[in-house]
Amino acid sequence: MFTKVLVSEDMDDINKGVYTLLSELGIKEIHQVQYCDDAYLKIKKAVLDAAPYQLLITDLYFKTDHREQRFLSGEDLAKALKEVYPALKIIIYSVEDKIQKVRTLINTYGIDAYVCKSRRGLKELIKAIEAVSKNQTYLSPEVETALSKKTDLEISDYDIELLKQLSLGYSKDEISEIFKKNSITPSSVSSIEKRQNKLFIQFKANNAINLVAIVKDLGLI
Amino acid sequence: MFTKVLVSEDMDDINKGVYTLLSELGIKEIHQVQYCDDAYLKIKKAVLDAAPYQLLITDLYFKTDHREQRFLSGEDLAKALKEVYPALKIIIYSVEDKIQKVRTLINTYGIDAYVCKSRRGLKELIKAIEAVSKNQTYLSPEVETALSKKTDLEISDYDIELLKQLSLGYSKDEISEIFKKNSITPSSVSSIEKRQNKLFIQFKANNAINLVAIVKDLGLI
DNA sequence: TTTTATAATACGGATGTCCGTAAGGAATTG
DNA sequence: CAATTCCTTACGGACATCCGTATTATAAAA
Fold first, then answer.
1. How far is A121 from chain B (nearest CA, A)?
2. DSSP designation for B199
């Protein structure tokens, strides 16, 4: 079992709940931060001090306030940490239950567990901690389809960028120009439309308006 | 100060935090529920027993699970309660910080305070409780512009319905037909476009795609 | 290098959107 | 009652989108 754990969560009340839980599990060193940047610095320092954290439990979304932050979300934080310290286990503990987001976190960034905050959230968190300590990954029931589902729909960065530009209200011509300026390829109007048509099919959308509405609900943009 | 308070919040960890806070404020009777329906029943019963609650603190969003619920959100609950028991004070305690939603809750349903969950959420909650006990309304800083802002943009039910149909991917012709079937007036394509143009201006949208993206972000649909 | 496959671009036509103007109705006011 | 105002509806032109097909470019295989 883990002996040194960091909890990154902006809301003080939730933070307290998780802290209590970890104490009950017999974990000796439990530290808490309310900002992603603090989490990164603490983890970095602990490594330099030869006493690294074994586990990070972090929320996904952090309210922004006056403090300027390098990492704006648990996603940014997890991505950066897994690149530098791949040995560090990371559990995401968030209310978010969008499958696509979970899929990215697991497949692309390599996080170890994803637990949805809910009525039984703390109990799920226990399961996750136990699984991760055995080098397993864990997904709480709400999102466990994220991996099982074979339809790894392969939404590329290009698709996301296209959807963003659409949602900002740019026409196909304008998006084509923007892509050319930013050296994003393919950039022709025709290719953009072709890619959009694929998205129509994938998301069962009737038109561009519908498409943007759907991917907004999915949390892709 | 209040002596009998009900807390309605699905997440157990947060619920615990609020409970502790109320205890520290010296409130004697504090009860907790994790479902809106339970809140409604408890409040109703307390009235029948001639020992009514004076204050309800409720979250806005509740995760749905196997239990069938009459009230799906704190909004539904607050609306129903204010109709039947207008004397009951209601504080909404939610992460949601969409101005338009707060505005509706205050102006239409008559809730007494709105506190955004955040790093300082519990401290704001104290202020809200004190204000409400003096028959004042309270809004935490994140949303206090909801009332001061004169631009009560007057988004009508018609507008919301139109935006919904757009987001579902229907063409103007189809929406016109739908409106005619449902006796929603005006229903001509021309009028629908005219109304849409107003929305373009209000939300500074470039086209329908952009418009739907914006109102989705605002939480209007 | 040539052949083949794959991806990117160009183009055209049917349809939909955007936006201005104008005509017809209903309610308000003098 | 007529006049005015406000709202709904109708129509048309410029433009954008959607979607099919055809052509060109790029990369991989023979």
1. 8
2. H
Q: What is the mean pLDDT of residues B96-122?
A: 85
Round to whole Å and give the CA distance between B80 and A216: 30
Distance of CA A123 to the CA centre of its chain: 21
Whole-angstrom distance, CA of residue B113 vs CA of residue B72 = 20
Whether the pLDDT of residue B13 is over 90: the answer is no
Strand D close to A198 by CB, under 7 A = no
A169 touches strand D (CB under 7 A): no
DSSP string, chain A: --SEEEEE-S-HHHHHHHHHHHHHTT-SEEEEESSHHHHHHHHHHHHHTT---SEEEE-SB----SS--S--BHHHHHHHHHHH-TTSEEEEEES---HHHHHHIIIII--SEEEE-STTHHHHHHHHHHHHHTT--EE-GGGTHHHH-S------HHHHHHHHHHHTT--HHHHHHHHHHTT-SS-SHHHHHHHHHHHHHHTT-SSHHHHHHHHHHHT--
Mean pLDDT of chain A: 88
Domains belonging to chain B, first-starting first, are: 4-148 (3.40.50.2300), 157-218 (1.10.10)
- Number of CB atoms found within 10 A of residue B156's CB: 10
Q: How far apart are the two ends of chain A, measured CA to CA in Å?
A: 37
Cβ atoms of A70 and A34 within 8 Å: the answer is: no
C-beta atoms of B213 and A208 within 8 A: no
The pLDDT score that the predictor gives to residue B108 is 83
Q: Is A10 on the interface with B (CB under 8 A)?
A: yes
Residue-wise pLDDT tens digits, B141-151: 888 866 654 44
Kindly report whether the global pTM for this prediction surpasses the value 0.70: no
Q: Are B110 and B86 in contact (CB under 8 A)?
A: yes
Scanning A127-166 for CB atoms below 8 A from B yields 166
- Across B114-126, b (16+ Cβ under 10 Å) vs e yields bbbbbbbbbebbe
